[in-house]
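Dear colleagues,

As part of the handover before I leave the project, I'm documenting each prediction I ran so the next person doesn't have to rerun anything. This entry is a single chain, and its sequence is reproduced below.
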Amino acid sequence: MFYDWLLKNGRVIDPASGTDRVANIGIADGEVAYIGTIDDTASAREVADLAGCIVCPGLIDTHLHAYGALSCLNPDTLGILSGVTAMVDAGSCGAYNYPEMQVLLDEACETDWFAFLHLQPLGVTGGTGEHYKFVRSMSGIPLAQMSEWVGPEGRVRGLKIPAFGPIGIEPVHLAKSVARMLGIPLYIHIGDFMVRPQLITTPAVLNLLEQGDMATHVYTGVYGGPYTEGGLAAKELKAARDRGVILDVGFGSFNFNFTMARIGFEQGIFPDTISSDLQNRNVTGPAKSLCHVMSLFLAMGMSVPEVLACVTSNAAKAIYAEPWRGRITLGGRADITVLKLEEGDFRFRDCDGQEISGRQRLVPLKVWKAGKKIDCRPEAVEELENWMVEKNEDGPLRVELDGVDREFLRLLDKRARKIPWKLQNIHETLEQSMADSEIPLRRAIALVQSMCLTKPFPMCTATLLRDLGQDRTGKYIESMLAA
């Protein structure tokens, strides 16, 4: 057989099949066509000698933020450029702005992406006090539309809601009911951040979860963490694990603590999935990348195959991915990550300033994405221009407008001057103006971005206008129409 690529001499680790040996992999037509020891370089168009490297299924990051104010200019810096072939945006959007996220990420990403949809209709960005009322009843939840985004062909693989004490337990009950109706897992954020609420809901929330549901930030040190306050919800977390609830790391900026993780490990509570919770505020530290977080767990005593299982086969199962994803299997799509296991003296920091040392770290070198070779550039995510949202201060960018553009802007201007300047109202005004002008969603996004940003950024249009302000929005639209 003739191969497009022959990957030679790598240490193939595939936790799904228990494989851990030096082997060669042949890739043809974007699929894995051979796994074995035959070294027939004459039958391959391209040959990669990967001696000394780990060859594993494409990494899956089950929690990061590729859309919204926490994202990056180039979402692929969170994905394939960091060795990750599939990523899950965990709650950056809700049902109202999911179509925007789909348009922007499809355009920007070579990385496969999925979503845990936030029950709050505008996602994490809309997660302020004024929006909690929208998760207390079914009135703000467009179930019919959401049902189109789930299932094997859909990108939405879970429903997210935080276990925040101030919002109480009722929204979590509602979220669980919605998740059941949609047939998707419930994905729970554990932890109350910096202020201890009067009511901590973590124990009650963990008791709601069923097999296949997920709890993230299980080693957090903030109020509401399972191991805080002498084991606030340790019993409930163990019982949830025993029921088949998936325990996710969700490292983040505030939500991983070495002391809490050691307590969990001592009690036999190890992660099912390791995720970075990458966002533009932590790519320079402490999270940095999925491989950095994986390396931290090596320093805590997990083996390389155990760590890889958490970002391949376990992660694929958690998001009920295609049968080939998260494994290397004959006839499966050739999504493969190549890693270097470096030896040295490395330091790892948690979200609370504690440090540990480790003797090994995993560095992404290359991926094969559907058989296409891509060189990794993990340093790209830290580049300043990648995570800076540059806003227009002096006026909108000049844009050529057609008749539909002008009608959309006129309607938006007329309505925007009359509404309370809050996210929900701004979003509804945008939706009405798009529908009435019949402007394509992608074009409407581009016009709003030209008003608000010096260069495009995968961010919610309602948030951009809210930050621009009501007065300047009117003035900028006037300027665009006059030009």
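Residues 423-437 form the longest helix (15 residues). DSSP finds 15 helices and 15 strands in the chain.

All the best with the project,
I.
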